[in-house]
Prior knowledge:
Elements: E1 4-7, H1 17-31, H2 37-42, H3 48-58, H4 67-85, H5 97-106, E2 110-113, H6 120-126, H7 150-157, E3 166-170, H8 173-181, E4 185-189, E5 200-202, H9 210-217
Parallel strand pairs: 1-2, 1-3, 3-4, 4-5
Helix pairs in contact: 1-4
Bound molecules: 1,6-di-O-phosphono-beta-D-glucopyranose and magnesium ion.
Magnesium ion binds near residues 8 and 11.
Amino acid sequence: DLKGFIFDLDGVITGTAKFHGQAWHQLADELGVTWTESLANGLKGVSRMDSLEMILKAGGKENDYTEAEKVAYATKKNDNYLKLISNMTPADVFPGVKEFLDDLLAKGYVISLASASKNAPTILKHIGLSDYFTKIVDPATLSKGKPDPEIYTRGAEILNLPPEACAGVEDAAAGVAAINGAHETSIGIGDANELSAADIIFSETSALTLANIEAQMAK
Ligand code: B16
Ligand code: MG
């Protein structure tokens, strides 16, 4: 039986992807790399430095910069991103998410956060969910990012639960792969084709309820 839920942040709890997109787009322009929809989508769930590498590669510029220059560009992107997210409020929590979290906690489930974002604590503060997530995997301590299972394995460990007792909730294919690799129940939020590897799929967060999850698991 499930005892814990491990949440991704961007695309599940709130929509920071548009701000990541804006900030990366601005940097891509500066680097002379053409910004495309598929490039934007590919950055979902991917760490900051890996995202920069993907952008440079898309422009055939992966060998043009030193490590220090890359760090400087990633920092520049993040400074822009931080300005964009500073206007986020509790109204930016996706539909049904707060109700789902309240229901989980009221029923004795435990929850943790498995976001690749180093800005997760800042975002949680802006959207008023800091008190809900006292257990957060620190992405700076991971040796590999999603789709590697490490972040979801750690998400269960910090709850003191075996993976079989946990479900992970994700909007990105790389994240679903990470949950499956950690041997947890995978719940995908979004496009059924893109997330076909998930055990359970909901098109929107508003469908994220214990009753709906139980109904899907019984199938
Ligand atoms: P940061 P998630 C991920 O968040 C985003 O989906 C991804 O686009 C971003 O590059 C990554 O966090 C790192 O974010 O630059 O803030 O450390 O989906 O894992 O919650
Ligand atoms: Mg995500």
